């Protein structure tokens, strides 16, 4: 199975995870400071900053884009409960 | 002594004059005893709504809870016609302020609705209508009523994501929504005429605003430059026309630590709470304390949950960087004093604090995992899996506890070495 490498910069931990895994699933297991609310892309609690490998995450859906806009999220922000790792290297941290 | 305002005339609710151009058109709810499940309201509350008249139209600021719409509309009709309404502003979309909105929009279809940017999805969820015309606004946006101007200040999380304040520039009057409000019902309306409402003001802050202290301080940065204000007109409780700046100052005090902390800037605080029936979880706590103390710049404190009421612990946790809980497992659950403390933390902000759990058990040991899940639910980060020890810890197990404490303290100080893990190896 294809793997991706995702680094949580706030705790300095890198995880090798199967492609298609949502960032939330990995982040919770390693105890990153990215926190969660609804877990279904509605509340915007889990906004994270992607510092590297933006294109190694799935594209944001129309709904995710809308939630990011409503929460006045920055340019490099994604919802950890929606973004899935695709492969390569990704680096993220809490906002 | 001034006369109390006339709220009704011949049985019909009347608007109350606040200035030549501003009237109160809210409603009193003296029989309410509990608000939103969590707040006690010993003498009820008020739903304050206001009307502002400019040379080119009228603005309505907030409405009331749905079952008080009759009073709201009667008061509105006593000072304006529906076809004069140009602007409707909602500072906050909670139903106690938006209950009369659908009917108001039906009666004044020409009016433009102004809400904060973060209120958009909430408005749709509240009104259950897809097509709804509104204008989202942000800090600095203005709307003109001719010789009167409204300016918006986005004050998120005071106490919902959507909340904003609206400022009437020409009269130096702030319509503050729930900010500076309280649940206090008194027909004399004004802060210099009602009964002593200081307890209600502080109680409201403690339960509604305290979890968002950081946002209170940010909002004050926006609002303090407006001082001196002539009036602060909140959405609940007395209308603050006498020395309104005192209430702004009080918010600043309540959002700032009372005593200067003795913890220096480079240090982190780690609290270890435990409860123990036979001393096993206590021995684990002491070893974790010992391990954590070996890391420089970490101020570690150890507390037995049996030794205090909950409130001081909540205050301690609010200021701490990390919190560890030690709980035995009894009858398949963590013990009640632990849950009691964990269920009292909704009034403070815990986001991204470090959390961890440990405990001794007899035969199952589910308590540790349950509390870990709760800590994650409270938005703490739990970087190291909790430790469970069957009955009396051995010296080897005590050493594991020391390492757990040391690792937690290292994590708190950002000293953990970069690590690469395979997802399959994570529990």
Automatic annotation (TrEMBL), chain A:
Gene3D superfamilies: 3.10.20.30
CDD domains: fer2 (cd00207)
Domain of life of the native organism: Bacteria
Domain (2Fe-2S ferredoxin-type) ranges: 2-95
InterPro entries linked: 2Fe-2S_ferredoxin-like_sf (IPR036010), 2Fe-2S_ferredoxin-type (IPR001041), 2Fe2S_fd_BS (IPR006058), Beta-grasp_dom_sf (IPR012675)
Residue spans crossing the bilayer: none
Protein name, UniProt field: (2Fe-2S)-binding protein
Organism the protein comes from: Candidatus Methylobacter oryzae
From TrEMBL, chain B:
Flavodoxin-like domain sequence ranges: 270-409
PROSITE patterns in the cross-refs: FLAVODOXIN, FLAVODOXIN_LIKE
Keyword Transferase: no
Cofactor requirements of the protein: FMN
SMART domains: Lactamase_B
Keywords: Flavoprotein, FMN
Family matches, as InterPro entries: Flavodoxin/NO_synth, Flavodoxin_CS, Flavoprotein-like_sf, Metallo-B-lactamas, ODP_dom, RibonucZ/Hydroxyglut_hydro, Rubredoxin-O_OxRdtase
Family named by the database record: In the N-terminal section; belongs to the zinc metallo-hydrolase group 3 family.
Protein name: FprA family A-type flavoprotein
Organism of origin: Candidatus Methylobacter oryzae
Taxon lineage: Bacteria, Pseudomonadati, Pseudomonadota, Gammaproteobacteria, Methylococcales
């Amino acid at each position: 199975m294809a793997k991706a490498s995702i680094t949580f910069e706030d705790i300095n931990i890198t995880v090798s995870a199967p492609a298609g895994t949502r960032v939330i699933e990995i982040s919770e297991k390693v105890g990153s400071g990215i926190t969660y609310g609804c877990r279904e892309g509605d509340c915007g609690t889990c906004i994270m900053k992607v510092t590297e490998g933006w294109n190694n995450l799935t594209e944001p859906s129309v709904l995710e884009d809308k939630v990011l806009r409503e929460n006045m999220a920055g340019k490099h922000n994604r919802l950890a409960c929606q973004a899935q790792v695709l492969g390569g290297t990704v680096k993220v941290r809490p906002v | 002594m001034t006369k109390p305002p006339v709220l009704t005339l011949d049985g019909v609710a009347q608007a109350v004059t606040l200035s030549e151009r501003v009237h109160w058109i809210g409603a009193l709810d003296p029989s309410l005893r509990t608000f939103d499940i969590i707040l006690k309201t010993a003498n009820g509350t008020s739903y304050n709504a206001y009307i502002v008249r400019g040379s080119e139209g009228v603005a309505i600021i907030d409405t009331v809870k749905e079952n008080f719409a009759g009073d709201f509309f009667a008061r509105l009709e006593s000072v304006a016609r529906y076809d004069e309404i140009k602007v409707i502003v909602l500072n906050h979309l909670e139903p106690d302020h938006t209950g009369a909105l659908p009917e108001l929009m039906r009666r004044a279809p020409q009016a433009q609705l102004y809400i904060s940017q973060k209120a958009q999805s909430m408005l749709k969820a509240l009104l259950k209508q897809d097509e709804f015309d509104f204008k989202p606004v942000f800090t600095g946006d203005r709307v003109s009523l001719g010789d009167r101007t409204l300016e918006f200040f986005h004050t998120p999380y005071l106490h919902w994501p959507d909340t904003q304040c609206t400022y009437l520039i020409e009269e130096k009057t702030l319509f503050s929504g729930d900010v500076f409000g309280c649940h206090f019902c008194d027909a004399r309306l004004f802060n210099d005429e009602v009964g002593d409402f200081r307890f209600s003001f502080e109680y409201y802050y403690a339960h509604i605003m305290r979890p968002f202290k950081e946002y209170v301080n940010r909002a004050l940065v926006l609002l303090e430059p407006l001082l001196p204000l002539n009036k602060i007109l909140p959405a609940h409780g007395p209308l603050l026309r006498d020395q309104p700046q005192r209430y702004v100052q009080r918010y600043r005090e309540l959002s700032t630590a009372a005593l200067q902390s003795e913890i220096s800037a480079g240090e982190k605080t780690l609290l270890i709470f435990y409860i123990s029936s036979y001393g096993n979880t206590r021995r684990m706590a002491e070893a974790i304390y010992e391990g954590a103390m070996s890391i420089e710049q970490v101020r570690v404190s150890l507390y037995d949950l049996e030794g205090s009421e909950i409130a001081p612990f909540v205050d301690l946790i609010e200021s701490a960087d990390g919190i560890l809980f030690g709980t035995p497992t009894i009858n398949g659950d963590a013990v009640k004093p632990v849950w009691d403390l964990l269920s009292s933390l909704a009034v403070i902000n815990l986001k991204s604090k470090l959390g961890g759990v440990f405990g001794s058990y007899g035969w199952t040991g589910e308590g540790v995992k349950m509390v870990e899940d709760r800590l994650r639910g409270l938005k703490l980060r739990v970087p190291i899996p909790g430790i469970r020890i069957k009955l009396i810890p051995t010296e080897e197990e005590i050493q594991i506890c020391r390492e757990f404490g040391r690792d937690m303290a290292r994590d708190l100080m950002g000293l953990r070495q970069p690590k690469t893990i395979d997802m399959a190896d994570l529990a």
